[in-house]
Amino acid sequence: MELTRPVAEFVAQTRLDGIDVAAAHHARWLLIDAVGCALAGHGSREFHTTRQALTNIGPQGDATVLGEDRHPLLNAVFLNAYLITALTACDFHVPTRCHVTPEVVPAALAVGERFDRGGEELLTAVALGAEVTVRVGVAFDFSAKHARGWHAPGLSGVIGAAAAAGRMLRLDAPRMVNALALAAAQAAGTFVGHGTPQLKFNQARAALSGVLAAFIGAEAFPTTPEPFLGINGGLLTPTYTDHARPELLVDQLGEVWQLLQISLRRWPAGTSIQSVIDCLLEITTANAIGLDDVKRLDVTLAPASAQLHGHQPHPRTPFLALLSTHYVAAALLADGHFWLPSVAPSRLADPRLQAFADRVVVSADDSVPDAGAVTSLLTHDGRTLVAKRDFPRGHPSDPLSDDEMRAKFLRCAQERLDPPRARRLLAMLERVEHVSVREILSAATPGAA
After folding, report:
1. Who's near 170: CB < 8 A, 6+ residues apart?
2. How many Å apart are CA 131 and CA 436, to the nearest integer?
3. What gap in Å lies between CA 152 and CA 13, rounded to an integer?
4. Average pLDDT over residues 171-196
5. What's the CATH fold of domain 271-389?
6. Which of 157, 290, 389, 414 is the most buried (most CB within 10 A)?
7. What are the residue ranges of CATH 3.30.1330.120 in the chain?
8. CA 91 to chain centre
9. DSSP notation for 10-29
10. Domain 4-264+400-443's class?
11. What pLDDT digit, counting tens, does each position of 330-384 carry?
12. Which pLDDT does position 29 carry in this prediction?
Protein backbone atom coordinates (compact mmCIF):
# COMPACT_ATOMS: atom_id res chain seq x y z
CA MET A 1 0.00 0.00 0.00
CA GLU A 2 1.37 3.41 -0.99
CA LEU A 3 0.50 6.24 1.39
CA THR A 4 3.06 9.00 1.37
CA ARG A 5 3.14 9.86 -2.33
CA PRO A 6 -0.68 10.33 -2.58
CA VAL A 7 -0.66 12.54 0.53
CA ALA A 8 2.29 14.55 -0.77
CA GLU A 9 0.59 15.09 -4.14
CA PHE A 10 -2.64 16.10 -2.41
CA VAL A 11 -0.86 18.75 -0.32
CA ALA A 12 1.39 20.00 -3.11
CA GLN A 13 -1.26 20.23 -5.81
CA THR A 14 -4.58 21.14 -4.16
CA ARG A 15 -5.69 24.73 -4.66
CA LEU A 16 -8.21 26.65 -2.59
CA ASP A 17 -10.87 26.26 -5.28
CA GLY A 18 -10.35 22.49 -5.05
CA ILE A 19 -11.29 22.41 -1.38
CA ASP A 20 -14.90 21.69 -0.48
CA VAL A 21 -16.74 24.95 0.28
CA ALA A 22 -17.80 23.84 3.76
CA ALA A 23 -14.26 22.65 4.52
CA ALA A 24 -12.75 25.95 3.39
CA HIS A 25 -15.27 27.84 5.53
CA HIS A 26 -14.37 25.72 8.55
CA ALA A 27 -10.66 26.17 7.88
CA ARG A 28 -11.19 29.94 7.86
CA TRP A 29 -12.71 29.76 11.33
CA LEU A 30 -9.96 27.45 12.52
CA LEU A 31 -7.47 30.12 11.46
CA ILE A 32 -9.46 32.98 13.00
CA ASP A 33 -9.98 31.09 16.24
CA ALA A 34 -6.28 30.20 16.48
CA VAL A 35 -5.22 33.83 16.12
CA GLY A 36 -7.75 34.90 18.76
CA CYS A 37 -6.67 32.19 21.19
CA ALA A 38 -3.03 33.18 20.69
CA LEU A 39 -3.76 36.78 21.59
CA ALA A 40 -5.55 35.68 24.75
CA GLY A 41 -2.70 33.29 25.48
CA HIS A 42 -0.49 36.17 26.59
CA GLY A 43 -2.33 35.89 29.89
CA SER A 44 -0.70 32.52 30.52
CA ARG A 45 2.04 32.58 33.14
CA GLU A 46 3.71 29.60 31.51
CA PHE A 47 3.97 31.39 28.16
CA HIS A 48 6.21 34.03 29.69
CA THR A 49 8.44 31.33 31.14
CA THR A 50 8.69 29.72 27.72
CA ARG A 51 9.42 33.01 26.00
CA GLN A 52 12.25 33.76 28.42
CA ALA A 53 13.79 30.36 27.78
CA LEU A 54 13.71 30.83 24.00
CA THR A 55 15.01 34.39 24.32
CA ASN A 56 18.02 32.89 26.09
CA ILE A 57 18.56 30.67 23.05
CA GLY A 58 18.12 33.41 20.45
CA PRO A 59 16.96 36.90 21.44
CA GLN A 60 16.49 38.54 18.05
CA GLY A 61 14.88 37.60 14.77
CA ASP A 62 12.55 38.60 11.97
CA ALA A 63 9.55 36.33 12.61
CA THR A 64 6.46 37.68 14.37
CA VAL A 65 4.99 36.26 17.54
CA LEU A 66 1.26 37.03 17.56
CA GLY A 67 0.58 40.01 19.77
CA GLU A 68 4.17 41.05 20.38
CA ASP A 69 7.70 41.43 19.03
CA ARG A 70 9.91 39.41 16.71
CA HIS A 71 11.98 36.30 17.37
CA PRO A 72 14.05 33.85 15.31
CA LEU A 73 11.74 31.89 13.02
CA LEU A 74 11.75 28.55 14.85
CA ASN A 75 11.36 30.32 18.19
CA ALA A 76 8.36 32.23 16.81
CA VAL A 77 6.77 28.98 15.61
CA PHE A 78 7.14 27.45 19.06
CA LEU A 79 5.85 30.53 20.86
CA ASN A 80 2.85 31.01 18.56
CA ALA A 81 1.93 27.36 19.01
CA TYR A 82 2.17 27.70 22.77
CA LEU A 83 0.06 30.84 22.72
CA ILE A 84 -2.72 29.15 20.74
CA THR A 85 -3.02 26.27 23.19
CA ALA A 86 -2.01 28.07 26.39
CA LEU A 87 -5.50 28.71 27.77
CA THR A 88 -7.21 25.51 26.63
CA ALA A 89 -9.59 27.46 24.40
CA CYS A 90 -8.50 26.29 20.95
CA ASP A 91 -9.93 23.61 18.65
CA PHE A 92 -10.14 19.89 19.44
CA HIS A 93 -10.67 16.78 17.32
CA VAL A 94 -12.62 14.58 19.69
CA PRO A 95 -12.12 11.17 17.99
CA THR A 96 -8.33 11.42 18.24
CA ARG A 97 -8.07 13.81 21.23
CA CYS A 98 -5.91 16.13 19.18
CA HIS A 99 -5.58 19.91 19.13
CA VAL A 100 -4.88 20.73 15.50
CA THR A 101 -4.32 24.47 15.04
CA PRO A 102 -1.41 24.83 17.51
CA GLU A 103 0.67 22.70 15.16
CA VAL A 104 -0.67 23.79 11.78
CA VAL A 105 -1.32 27.54 12.00
CA PRO A 106 2.07 28.70 13.40
CA ALA A 107 3.86 26.65 10.74
CA ALA A 108 1.89 28.28 7.93
CA LEU A 109 2.20 31.79 9.40
CA ALA A 110 5.97 31.60 9.86
CA VAL A 111 6.70 30.45 6.32
CA GLY A 112 4.12 32.82 4.90
CA GLU A 113 5.69 35.78 6.63
CA ARG A 114 9.23 34.79 5.62
CA PHE A 115 8.35 34.55 1.92
CA ASP A 116 5.59 37.19 1.83
CA ARG A 117 2.81 34.80 0.83
CA GLY A 118 -0.79 35.82 0.36
CA GLY A 119 -3.79 34.97 2.46
CA GLU A 120 -5.21 32.57 -0.11
CA GLU A 121 -2.13 30.40 0.23
CA LEU A 122 -2.36 30.69 4.01
CA LEU A 123 -5.96 29.49 4.10
CA THR A 124 -5.12 26.66 1.71
CA ALA A 125 -2.17 25.55 3.82
CA VAL A 126 -4.20 25.63 7.03
CA ALA A 127 -6.95 23.52 5.44
CA LEU A 128 -4.52 20.97 4.03
CA GLY A 129 -2.42 20.78 7.19
CA ALA A 130 -5.54 20.27 9.31
CA GLU A 131 -6.84 17.60 6.96
CA VAL A 132 -3.57 15.68 7.06
CA THR A 133 -3.36 15.94 10.85
CA VAL A 134 -6.82 14.50 11.34
CA ARG A 135 -6.36 11.74 8.77
CA VAL A 136 -3.09 10.57 10.31
CA GLY A 137 -4.74 10.51 13.72
CA VAL A 138 -7.74 8.52 12.50
CA ALA A 139 -5.49 6.02 10.70
CA PHE A 140 -3.42 5.66 13.86
CA ASP A 141 -6.42 4.46 15.92
CA PHE A 142 -6.96 6.56 19.01
CA SER A 143 -7.77 3.78 21.48
CA ALA A 144 -4.54 1.89 20.77
CA LYS A 145 -2.51 5.09 20.75
CA HIS A 146 -3.94 6.32 24.04
CA ALA A 147 -3.43 2.92 25.67
CA ARG A 148 0.29 3.29 25.00
CA GLY A 149 0.32 6.83 26.40
CA TRP A 150 0.87 8.65 23.11
CA HIS A 151 -0.25 12.27 22.88
CA ALA A 152 -1.78 12.92 19.45
CA PRO A 153 -0.38 16.38 18.61
CA GLY A 154 3.19 15.11 18.79
CA LEU A 155 2.43 12.26 16.39
CA SER A 156 -0.17 13.42 13.90
CA GLY A 157 0.23 17.17 14.48
CA VAL A 158 3.87 17.16 13.44
CA ILE A 159 2.85 15.67 10.08
CA GLY A 160 0.17 18.35 9.61
CA ALA A 161 2.66 21.08 10.52
CA ALA A 162 5.10 19.80 7.90
CA ALA A 163 2.30 19.68 5.34
CA ALA A 164 1.23 23.27 6.08
CA ALA A 165 4.78 24.60 6.06
CA GLY A 166 5.61 22.64 2.93
CA ARG A 167 2.57 24.00 1.16
CA MET A 168 3.62 27.56 2.03
CA LEU A 169 7.12 26.75 0.76
CA ARG A 170 5.48 25.60 -2.51
CA LEU A 171 7.18 22.22 -2.38
CA ASP A 172 6.58 19.84 -5.26
CA ALA A 173 5.41 16.32 -4.44
CA PRO A 174 8.87 14.68 -4.19
CA ARG A 175 10.10 17.32 -1.76
CA MET A 176 6.83 17.11 0.13
CA VAL A 177 7.54 13.39 0.59
CA ASN A 178 10.88 14.39 2.12
CA ALA A 179 9.18 16.85 4.45
CA LEU A 180 6.57 14.33 5.61
CA ALA A 181 9.24 11.69 6.17
CA LEU A 182 11.38 14.02 8.25
CA ALA A 183 8.31 15.00 10.26
CA ALA A 184 7.44 11.35 10.90
CA ALA A 185 11.00 10.76 12.08
CA GLN A 186 10.32 13.27 14.87
CA ALA A 187 6.90 11.91 15.90
CA ALA A 188 6.82 11.68 19.69
CA GLY A 189 5.17 12.94 22.85
CA THR A 190 3.23 11.22 25.62
CA PHE A 191 0.45 11.94 28.11
CA VAL A 192 2.79 11.46 31.06
CA GLY A 193 2.68 15.20 31.75
CA HIS A 194 -1.09 15.52 31.92
CA GLY A 195 -2.13 18.06 34.51
CA THR A 196 0.91 20.18 33.71
CA PRO A 197 1.82 22.50 30.82
CA GLN A 198 4.09 19.73 29.53
CA LEU A 199 1.31 18.71 27.13
CA LYS A 200 1.34 22.22 25.68
CA PHE A 201 5.06 21.76 25.10
CA ASN A 202 4.27 18.65 23.01
CA GLN A 203 2.06 20.71 20.70
CA ALA A 204 4.54 23.55 20.31
CA ARG A 205 7.42 21.15 19.72
CA ALA A 206 5.39 19.42 17.00
CA ALA A 207 4.85 22.72 15.19
CA LEU A 208 8.56 23.53 15.34
CA SER A 209 9.54 20.03 14.19
CA GLY A 210 7.15 20.21 11.25
CA VAL A 211 8.63 23.49 10.05
CA LEU A 212 12.16 22.13 10.41
CA ALA A 213 11.15 19.07 8.38
CA ALA A 214 9.67 21.24 5.61
CA PHE A 215 12.70 23.50 5.29
CA ILE A 216 15.12 20.57 5.15
CA GLY A 217 12.84 18.59 2.88
CA ALA A 218 12.79 21.57 0.52
CA GLU A 219 16.49 20.99 -0.10
CA ALA A 220 15.79 17.46 -1.42
CA PHE A 221 17.34 15.90 1.68
CA PRO A 222 17.22 12.10 1.06
CA THR A 223 14.58 10.27 3.08
CA THR A 224 12.58 7.07 3.09
CA PRO A 225 9.77 7.21 0.51
CA GLU A 226 7.31 5.55 2.92
CA PRO A 227 7.55 6.84 6.51
CA PHE A 228 4.09 5.60 7.44
CA LEU A 229 4.48 1.89 6.66
CA GLY A 230 8.24 1.50 6.39
CA ILE A 231 9.96 -1.21 8.42
CA ASN A 232 11.98 -0.27 11.48
CA GLY A 233 9.65 2.40 12.82
CA GLY A 234 6.92 3.39 10.37
CA LEU A 235 4.40 5.67 12.04
CA LEU A 236 1.45 3.37 11.26
CA THR A 237 3.21 0.12 12.20
CA PRO A 238 3.41 -1.82 15.49
CA THR A 239 6.31 0.38 16.54
CA TYR A 240 3.64 2.93 17.47
CA THR A 241 0.31 1.10 17.38
CA ASP A 242 -1.04 -2.43 17.00
CA HIS A 243 -4.36 -1.44 15.45
CA ALA A 244 -3.62 1.09 12.74
CA ARG A 245 -5.90 1.37 9.73
CA PRO A 246 -3.49 2.87 7.19
CA GLU A 247 -6.05 2.90 4.40
CA LEU A 248 -7.98 5.64 6.22
CA LEU A 249 -5.13 8.06 5.59
CA VAL A 250 -5.92 8.17 1.87
CA ASP A 251 -9.51 6.91 1.68
CA GLN A 252 -11.52 9.46 -0.34
CA LEU A 253 -8.71 11.96 0.09
CA GLY A 254 -9.80 15.29 -1.38
CA GLU A 255 -13.42 14.13 -1.60
CA VAL A 256 -14.46 13.67 2.04
CA TRP A 257 -12.98 16.37 4.28
CA GLN A 258 -12.20 15.07 7.75
CA LEU A 259 -11.27 18.54 9.03
CA LEU A 260 -15.00 19.22 9.29
CA GLN A 261 -14.94 16.97 12.39
CA ILE A 262 -12.71 19.40 14.30
CA SER A 263 -14.59 21.07 17.14
CA LEU A 264 -14.25 24.76 17.97
CA ARG A 265 -14.47 25.40 21.70
CA ARG A 266 -16.70 28.04 23.18
CA TRP A 267 -14.99 28.25 26.56
CA PRO A 268 -11.43 28.07 27.93
CA ALA A 269 -11.70 24.63 29.53
CA GLY A 270 -11.19 20.93 28.84
CA THR A 271 -13.44 19.33 26.22
CA SER A 272 -15.76 17.39 28.51
CA ILE A 273 -15.88 20.39 30.87
CA GLN A 274 -17.32 22.33 27.92
CA SER A 275 -20.30 19.99 28.13
CA VAL A 276 -20.53 20.52 31.88
CA ILE A 277 -20.67 24.29 31.33
CA ASP A 278 -23.38 23.89 28.69
CA CYS A 279 -25.42 21.66 30.99
CA LEU A 280 -25.17 24.04 33.93
CA LEU A 281 -26.07 27.05 31.79
CA GLU A 282 -29.13 25.17 30.59
CA ILE A 283 -30.20 24.48 34.18
CA THR A 284 -29.41 27.89 35.65
CA THR A 285 -30.98 29.82 32.78
CA ALA A 286 -34.22 27.82 32.98
CA ASN A 287 -34.45 27.93 36.77
CA ALA A 288 -32.78 31.21 37.79
CA ILE A 289 -30.53 29.63 40.41
CA GLY A 290 -26.93 30.24 41.49
CA LEU A 291 -24.24 28.86 43.73
CA ASP A 292 -26.01 29.56 47.02
CA ASP A 293 -29.09 27.63 45.89
CA VAL A 294 -27.18 24.39 45.26
CA LYS A 295 -26.67 21.73 47.90
CA ARG A 296 -24.80 19.19 45.76
CA LEU A 297 -23.71 18.71 42.15
CA ASP A 298 -23.12 15.30 40.60
CA VAL A 299 -21.25 15.22 37.30
CA THR A 300 -20.91 12.06 35.22
CA LEU A 301 -18.26 11.88 32.52
CA ALA A 302 -16.79 9.24 30.24
CA PRO A 303 -14.07 7.24 32.05
CA ALA A 304 -11.17 8.89 30.19
CA SER A 305 -12.61 12.35 30.82
CA ALA A 306 -13.26 11.63 34.48
CA GLN A 307 -9.66 10.51 34.84
CA LEU A 308 -8.41 13.71 33.20
CA HIS A 309 -10.76 16.24 34.80
CA GLY A 310 -12.28 14.71 37.92
CA HIS A 311 -9.56 14.73 40.54
CA GLN A 312 -8.54 18.34 41.23
CA PRO A 313 -11.25 20.05 43.30
CA HIS A 314 -8.85 22.74 44.57
CA PRO A 315 -6.53 23.77 41.71
CA ARG A 316 -3.57 25.89 42.75
CA THR A 317 -2.95 27.64 39.41
CA PRO A 318 -5.11 29.10 36.62
CA PHE A 319 -3.83 26.39 34.28
CA LEU A 320 -5.05 23.62 36.57
CA ALA A 321 -8.34 25.41 37.18
CA LEU A 322 -9.21 25.19 33.48
CA LEU A 323 -8.89 21.39 33.79
CA SER A 324 -10.89 21.03 37.01
CA THR A 325 -14.56 20.07 36.71
CA HIS A 326 -15.11 20.97 40.36
CA TYR A 327 -13.68 24.46 40.10
CA VAL A 328 -15.21 25.38 36.73
CA ALA A 329 -18.64 24.30 37.96
CA ALA A 330 -18.26 26.36 41.14
CA ALA A 331 -17.10 29.47 39.28
CA LEU A 332 -19.88 29.19 36.70
CA LEU A 333 -22.59 28.82 39.33
CA ALA A 334 -21.17 31.75 41.28
CA ASP A 335 -20.80 34.13 38.33
CA GLY A 336 -23.41 32.95 35.86
CA HIS A 337 -20.72 32.77 33.18
CA PHE A 338 -17.17 31.48 32.71
CA TRP A 339 -14.14 33.15 31.15
CA LEU A 340 -10.52 33.95 31.93
CA PRO A 341 -11.24 36.23 34.93
CA SER A 342 -12.95 33.21 36.48
CA VAL A 343 -9.54 31.60 36.99
CA ALA A 344 -7.65 34.65 38.24
CA PRO A 345 -5.43 33.73 41.22
CA SER A 346 -7.63 35.74 43.57
CA ARG A 347 -10.66 33.68 42.51
CA LEU A 348 -8.90 30.38 43.12
CA ALA A 349 -8.67 31.25 46.82
CA ASP A 350 -12.32 32.35 47.12
CA PRO A 351 -13.72 30.51 50.19
CA ARG A 352 -17.16 30.14 48.58
CA LEU A 353 -15.70 28.41 45.55
CA GLN A 354 -13.42 26.27 47.68
CA ALA A 355 -16.33 25.14 49.83
CA PHE A 356 -18.63 24.39 46.91
CA ALA A 357 -15.95 22.37 45.09
CA ASP A 358 -16.16 19.87 47.95
CA ARG A 359 -19.87 19.41 47.13
CA VAL A 360 -19.13 18.45 43.51
CA VAL A 361 -18.91 14.71 42.90
CA VAL A 362 -17.42 13.50 39.62
CA SER A 363 -17.99 9.90 38.53
CA ALA A 364 -17.32 7.84 35.43
CA ASP A 365 -19.78 5.95 33.26
CA ASP A 366 -19.06 4.09 30.00
CA SER A 367 -22.43 5.16 28.62
CA VAL A 368 -21.40 8.83 28.51
CA PRO A 369 -19.74 9.78 25.20
CA ASP A 370 -16.12 10.95 25.31
CA ALA A 371 -17.00 14.65 25.04
CA GLY A 372 -20.30 14.46 26.87
CA ALA A 373 -21.51 15.05 30.42
CA VAL A 374 -24.50 14.51 32.69
CA THR A 375 -25.10 16.98 35.51
CA SER A 376 -27.53 16.43 38.38
CA LEU A 377 -27.98 19.43 40.62
CA LEU A 378 -29.70 19.12 44.02
CA THR A 379 -31.03 22.41 45.40
CA HIS A 380 -31.46 23.29 49.03
CA ASP A 381 -35.24 23.33 48.55
CA GLY A 382 -35.20 19.69 47.41
CA ARG A 383 -35.33 19.95 43.61
CA THR A 384 -33.18 17.72 41.42
CA LEU A 385 -32.35 19.37 38.10
CA VAL A 386 -30.70 17.27 35.41
CA ALA A 387 -29.13 18.15 32.08
CA LYS A 388 -27.28 15.94 29.62
CA ARG A 389 -25.14 16.55 26.58
CA ASP A 390 -23.48 13.99 24.33
CA PHE A 391 -21.14 16.69 23.06
CA PRO A 392 -20.53 20.39 23.78
CA ARG A 393 -21.50 23.40 21.73
CA GLY A 394 -18.89 23.81 19.02
CA HIS A 395 -18.82 20.10 18.22
CA PRO A 396 -19.58 19.31 14.54
CA SER A 397 -22.98 18.01 15.65
CA ASP A 398 -23.82 21.37 17.26
CA PRO A 399 -21.50 23.96 15.70
CA LEU A 400 -21.15 27.52 16.88
CA SER A 401 -22.62 30.11 14.55
CA ASP A 402 -20.42 32.59 12.73
CA ASP A 403 -21.66 35.30 15.09
CA GLU A 404 -20.75 33.20 18.13
CA MET A 405 -17.28 32.66 16.68
CA ARG A 406 -16.91 36.39 16.06
CA ALA A 407 -17.88 37.10 19.66
CA LYS A 408 -15.34 34.59 20.94
CA PHE A 409 -12.59 36.03 18.74
CA LEU A 410 -13.20 39.57 19.94
CA ARG A 411 -13.31 38.44 23.55
CA CYS A 412 -9.96 36.69 23.09
CA ALA A 413 -8.30 39.38 20.98
CA GLN A 414 -9.25 42.17 23.36
CA GLU A 415 -7.10 40.50 26.01
CA ARG A 416 -4.20 41.91 23.97
CA LEU A 417 -5.51 44.48 21.46
CA ASP A 418 -7.73 47.53 21.86
CA PRO A 419 -11.29 46.93 20.59
CA PRO A 420 -10.98 48.87 17.29
CA ARG A 421 -7.80 47.00 16.38
CA ALA A 422 -9.36 43.66 17.31
CA ARG A 423 -12.34 44.39 15.04
CA ARG A 424 -10.04 45.39 12.17
CA LEU A 425 -8.06 42.19 12.56
CA LEU A 426 -11.24 40.11 12.53
CA ALA A 427 -12.44 41.82 9.35
CA MET A 428 -9.07 41.15 7.75
CA LEU A 429 -9.12 37.47 8.69
CA GLU A 430 -12.66 37.04 7.39
CA ARG A 431 -11.43 38.16 3.97
CA VAL A 432 -8.04 36.51 4.31
CA GLU A 433 -7.76 35.77 0.57
CA HIS A 434 -7.35 39.50 -0.09
CA VAL A 435 -4.53 40.28 2.35
CA SER A 436 -1.00 39.05 2.95
CA VAL A 437 0.36 37.08 5.87
CA ARG A 438 2.56 40.03 6.79
CA GLU A 439 -0.46 42.32 6.91
CA ILE A 440 -2.27 39.91 9.22
CA LEU A 441 0.68 39.64 11.60
CA SER A 442 1.15 43.40 11.63
CA ALA A 443 -2.52 43.90 12.45
CA ALA A 444 -2.17 41.43 15.33
CA THR A 445 0.68 43.41 16.90
CA PRO A 446 -0.24 46.09 19.46
CA GLY A 447 0.99 49.50 18.40
CA ALA A 448 2.01 48.49 14.88
CA ALA A 449 1.07 50.88 12.08
Report:
1. none
2. 23
3. 26
4. 94
5. 60s Ribosomal Protein L30; Chain: A; (3.30.1330)
6. 157
7. 271-389
8. 4
9. HHHH--GGGS-HHHHHHHHH
10. mainly alpha
11. 999 999 999 999 999 999 999 999 999 999 999 999 999 999 999 999 999 999 9
12. 98
